[in-house]
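Page 47, continued from p. 46.
Same chain as before, 141 aa.
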Amino acid sequence: MALLVAGVALVGIQFIPIQRNTSSAIPPSDFMVTEKPPAEIKSLITASCYDCHSNNTDYPWYSYVQPFAWMIQNHINNGKEELNLSEWGDYSDRMKGMKSESMAHQIEDGEMPLWPYTLLHKEAVLSDSEKKALLDYLSNL
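Result:
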């Protein structure tokens, strides 16, 4: 009986939608617009940061299955709360400095991108040379 109830609940929660973090607009405040990074840096930041730290997430297939959708959306909401690259140009110069320094520390310490994200997004894994390039770029912002 408990298995039946769990099965019905699992099917039932599939019909509870999440509010997706998608937008086709690139605002003038977007990091890529305001900072105009070189192509290599743009590619690294897009692959490793933008899904959780911008207003436009490229959702994978498994994000349409509950409870994974809730967990993923929670990570995105928390990520955007800490750093929203779509709103970079709206940050004060002081805030940009603090954010870029925090980004560098987290990349250097291996905290970002999150390891669960990199398990399924191999393109987000940063090699040592990519980390160095990104850290050098961030230190000059």
